[in-house]
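note to self: dont lose this again. the chain is below, predicted strucutre after it. 106 aa total, dont forget to put it in the shared folder this time
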Amino acid sequence: MAFRDLIDDIDDVVFETLGDSAVIEGRSEPVLGMFSAPWKQPQFGKLNTGLREPRFEIRVKDSDGLVKGLRVSVDLPALDGGGDYDLLQLEPDGNGLVALILRKRA
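---
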């Protein structure tokens, strides 16, 4: 089994166990990912992480066909950042994940 296959198996477990769900415009099924909200800026010790915009990290295999302007509806309570967002850009990290950079819909 190739390394990427092993990582894909691990990602399956991590995303199914810890992931957040979002409905992306044009997709019939929700996509699992990891949502980060800047107003809930995570801290490690006393160091801020410096997140500036909402992000939804998904696997590369779930990013096919995504383009700027699509609506992304994050399935979380409003106080945790859930709601509707516009997709501003995609930022692949080179490790099998893609950050969807989002902007809250008015």
